[in-house]
Structures are given as structure tokens and as C-alpha cells.
Amino acid sequence: MIIKGFIQWAVKFGVALVVVVLTLNCSAKQELTAEESVRMKAGERWQALIEGKLDKAYAYEVPEYRKVFDIEQYKRGFGGVGMWKKAEVVDVACMENCVVTMRIYVTINVARWGDTMDTSSLLKEQWMRDTGSGEWFHLSSK
Q: Residue 120 sits in which domain range?
């Protein structure tokens, strides 16, 4: 009798556990909106640029860009690595493509006084969804 009761309890517990796991799994797989996805990717791309990880930043470029410009050509296009200190996503507006407004913080050397100055500037980036993979990529202005 005790064994039968234990088995019934174990079955009920197992079913309840499966329901909880499935519920958590489904909620964890909720897709991000275009704005959320692009906001995350733009932040990651700029963090890679700030850290000088141009190989990682290159992976965020649209596949068509990467077919035309190899990684070495991409790297030659950056002279500001080391000056950038921080980047913040200010706004993301998506229709078919997304326009991301970034605030980039830099430190500039003021040669005349031998000092540095911190400043920031806004810039806009274009992001587009790849029709094949559905992933969002940075659209370089080159």
C-alpha cells in the first residue's frame, strides 16, 4: 500500500515537473522584438569596437558587405580604436530596416596643452534583417 501511494505521488510529481519545465521553456523562447534584438546587437558591436575586437565587430556586418570586404580591409577602415570609451544605444526605430541612434563617448588629446578632453557625439546607424537567416546586421556606409 505504501509503495502504491509512493508511485502515485511520484507520477503526479513527475507530471507537474514536466508541465513546469515546458512552461519555462516556452517562455524562455519568446522572440525578441526587432527593436530589442537590434538594441542588443548594436550595443555588442560597439563594445567589440571599443575593446579593439574588430574580428568580432566584423561579424555584425551584413553578409553582402563581408563578401566584398575581407577582415583586413575592414580593419584598415578604423583609426579611432582606443579613443572610444563608451557607447550607449539612445534609440532604435524599426520599420523594414532599423535606425539606431548611438551616443559615443571619446577622449581626445588636446596637443596644445598636453591634456585630454572627454566628449560625446550622437551617430545614426542602419541595421537590416537578412532575408535568409532572419538575423539583424549592421549596414556599413562604406
A: 33-139
Please report which helix (H) or strand (E) contains residue 109, including its range: strand 98-110
> What's the pTM value of the predicted model, to 2 decimals?
0.75
Q: What share of the chain is helix, strand, coil (3-state, %, to 5)?
A: 45, 30, 25
Q: How many residues does the chain have?
A: 142
Return d(Cα 57, Cα 137) in angstroms, integer. Answer: 11
Do the Cβ atoms of 84 and 98 come closer than 8 Å? Answer: no
The residue to which cell 534584438 is assigned: 37
Q: CA-to-CA distance for 60 and 40, rounded, in angstroms?
A: 12
- The more confident residue out of 71 and 79 is 71
Helix/strand/coil for 88: strand
| Residue 45 in domain | yes
Our count of domains for the chain comes to 1
The 10 Å Cβ neighbour count of residue 29 is 7
